[in-house]
Amino acid sequence: MHPTRRLLLHHLVFRAASIAPEETVVSLTPEGSCEHSWREVGQRARRLAGGLAGLGLGEGDAVATLAFNDHRHLDAYLAVPCLGARLHPVNTRWSDDEIVPVLAHTRDRILMVDGGLADRVGPILRRCPWIEHVVSMGPWAGGDVSTIDHDDLVGDSVPVEGWPELEETAGMALCSTSGTTGGPKTVEYTHRSTCLQTMALGLTDCMRLSGGDTVLAIVPMFHAMGWCLPYATAMLGSRLVLPHRDLDPMRILDVISEHRVTTAAAVPTIWNGVLAALDSEPGRWDVSCLDRIVSGGAAPTPAMIRGFRDRHDIEVIHSWGMTEINPVGTMSPAVTTREEAAMSPEARIDHQTVAGRPLPGLSLEIEDDEGRPVPHDGSETGRLLVSGWWVAPGYLHDHPDAARFRPDGRLDTGDVASIDDRGRMAIRDREKDLIKSGGEWISSLDLERAIGDLPAVASVAVIARPDERWGERPVAMVVLREGASLSIEELRSELSGSFQSWQLPDDLREIERMPLTSTGKIDKKTLRAGLGS
Ligand code: AMP
User: Fold this and answer.
1) Which atom of ligand 1 sits closest to the CA of residue 430?
2) Which ranges of 217-267 does DSSP label H, i.e. alpha helix?
3) Burial 444-476 (b: 16+ CB within 10 A, else e)
4) Strands 185-190 vs 425-430: parallel, antiparallel or unpaired
């Protein structure tokens, strides 16, 4: 019988080199910007793979990277998995104390490090004696650590001729998250799961990616494989712009207007900053090229979605996902069905504010505390379960959260959601962020959405404060816009139409800056610690 071609990354990610060989990848590194055609990118990957194989890298081995979004990291994204090894992009914002336990789990043989992080390598190496080689990516000032230069490996190595025909369930990447109780968690992405995820990203009903796009990949390549954008552009032959580490909103706008970016993906914190910059200096940037942006990883406010649409003619595609699912789960473009095309502009904002429909190949369910299915009526909430083609089977190591991966293939996400009769999922909270007051649940997320919509508010987080009488009460921690003021009485009166009185915060604390986690989400742990809760 004729053999069935397996779902292996090398069948997908060198497509750009053949269909759009002259299209380019623009890499904006601190040493200067450079451009490589997709044909060159393919050749670089083959030579890097040859060099890494020469260092003894083999199937199943792990290669950690501590790197930003640039052409060298892209080389590794292609070369390591296609060679049959597993790429392990590690979050550069973590402390050594977070990184070392992660590497201890995955026993990476090679560590590839951006030259700007050279000073971090010595202390990590001393605690990770299993690392055999350090590859330096870009100009290096790393003291006494001996390294192999990435550009030499790419320049001097004999290119790999053919790629191994692995099992499609072979691991291609390792993704770790930290900051939870119980230590780091690592999942493995397989060739099969990543190929399917990458194909889905190109769907019209998803990100509408095409070879005609110029894609700015803001989401760090160390965060859940950069949401697979490097692979999607390598499949489609889009122009790819890699911004490296400086993600200041003004710089992002400079890059968008200079490179005529048509779409970009990032967390809402970044997009809020970009929107504020655009609004504060109208006319400074020409963003007429920017058609749509993807906002994922945390909830965007309706005000942000409306602001981009009404003032700048940019569509916000809201997305929900998590590291454990390779990572994109839902997308909410403005219009995908005939019914949505007929929506009023206001109804469409509500439609885009929900996280959206599962991508093809995924299923979403909600259940109550007794494990009973919750109806899909758009209002009742329950624990969100996800199953499907790119949901990881479990963590690689023991972890208290391992039981979230159920034997039937469903993953208990730890999110609380509703689903409507059109399959649209709205995240209502994370279990740990729910506030229980007088035996009743209050959604911090619903409050954050409403408070975030008030004109005086730049950003907001609602957290629980222990309360003798009620158990817990919500506290609104707000950063106000310049020159604005907001009292708790004003806040309560503004929101009184949409919430019950007991659901509203009775405490408002103004803070200067919102603490953020290493992935750019609001750091509620730090906020809670500041409250003593
Ligand atoms: P991570 O694995 O770091 O990407 O975190 C995944 C978690 O981030 C999810 O389980 C959600 O709690 C949260 N998250 C991701 N996307 C969204 C979204 N669009 N709205 C609200 N929360 C989100």
Assistant:
1) 12
2) 229-236, 249-259
3) bbbbbbbbbbbebbbbbbbbbbebeebebbbbb
4) unpaired
Q: Which amino acid is at 290?
A: L
Task: Phi first, then psi: give them for residue 159, nearest 5 degrees.
Answer: -65, 150
Nearest CA to ligand 1 atom 1: 322
User: Domain 3-246 falls in which CATH fold?
Assistant: Rossmann fold (3.40.50)
User: Interhelix angle for 268-280 vs 302-312, to 10°?
Assistant: 40
| 324 Cα nearest atom in ligand 1 | 2
Q: Give the three-class secondary structure for 187.
A: strand
Residues 6+ positions from 101 with CB-CB distance below 8 Å? 183, 184
CB of 429 closer than 6 angstroms to any ligand 1 atom: no
The Cα–Cα gap between 310 and 305 comes to 9
Of 59, 441, 490, 502, which residue is the catalytic one?
Answer: 441
Closest residue CA from atom 15 of ligand 1: 297
Do strands 425-430 and 411-419 pair parallel, antiparallel, or not at all (unpaired)? antiparallel
Report domain extents, the chain. 3-246, 434-531
Distance, in Å, from the CA atom of 213 to the CA atom of 133, rounded to the nearest integer, reads 37
**DSSP 3-state of 378:** coil
The domain at 434-531 falls in which architecture?
Answer: 2-Layer Sandwich (3.30)
Burial of 148 (0-12, 13-18, 19+ CB in 10 A): middle
Residues 231 and 13 sit within 8 Å (Cβ to Cβ): yes
Number of helices and strands in the chain (H, E): 16, 25
Q: What are phi and psi for residue 270, nearest 5 degrees?
A: -65, -45
Q: Is 112 in the pocket of ligand 1 (CB under 6 A)?
A: no
Half-sphere exposure of 516 (CA within 13 A, CB side): 15
- CA pair distance 220, 238, nearest whole angstrom: 18
The pLDDT tens digits along the chain (533 residues) read: 778 999 999 999 999 999 999 999 999 999 999 999 999 999 999 999 999 999 999 999 999 999 999 999 999 999 999 999 999 999 998 878 889 999 999 999 999 999 999 999 999 999 999 999 999 999 998 778 999 999 999 999 999 999 999 999 999 999 998 654 566 889 999 999 999 999 999 899 999 999 999 999 999 999 999 999 999 999 999 999 999 999 999 999 999 999 999 999 998 889 999 999 999 998 999 999 999 999 998 888 899 999 999 999 999 999 999 999 999 999 999 999 999 999 999 999 999 999 999 999 999 999 998 999 999 999 999 999 999 999 999 999 888 889 999 999 999 998 999 999 999 999 987 775 668 676 566 778 889 989 999 999 999 999 988 887 776 889 999 999 999 999 999 999 999 988 888 889 999 999 999 999 888 888 887 898 888 64
